[in-house]
Amino acid sequence: MLTIYSRIVVPFDGSVLSQKALEMAIKLIEQDKRIELDVLTVVNNEITGKPVYNVELQQESQRRAAAELQTTIKEKLALLPNRTRTIVLDGDPSKMILEFAKENNSDLIIMGSRGLSGLKELYLGSVSHHVVQKAACPVLIVK
């Protein structure tokens, strides 16, 4: 039985590595039905360096994509006896992940080493790197 962690949060953006992180979290929570799992999708409202002609349309598109991701996640989690939640937040992904984990007393963050951003960083993506540096709880990076 895994009793070290009681609440795990998984930031999920649909990337292959976020899917692996979710699978890892599911394997962990299956060991103890008392462990709670929060799956967090963040809609980034920040304007990137790419040209954006209709910001509202882009944000609505991102929200629709996040809702579709959440539907898929809910189907995966439905068979678990654990308490699970899927949450969509708006804002800067790094900041929202950290705030959510702190406000919800998460004691473990499991996330992919990089997500869907187009940036190719040397070791970690910018979001995972920031979360590792600033998180108040342990962070498990999946690659």
Automatic annotation (TrEMBL):
Stored InterPro entries: Rossmann-like_a/b/a_fold, Universal_stress_UspA, UspA
Origin: domain of life: Bacteria
Matches recorded under SUPFAM superfamilies: Adenine nucleotide alpha hydrolases-like (SSF52402)
Source organism of this protein record: Neobacillus kokaensis
Name of the protein in question: Universal stress protein YxiE
Record-stated family: Belongs to the universal stress protein A family.
Domain UspA: 5-143
Pfam families reported for this sequence: Usp
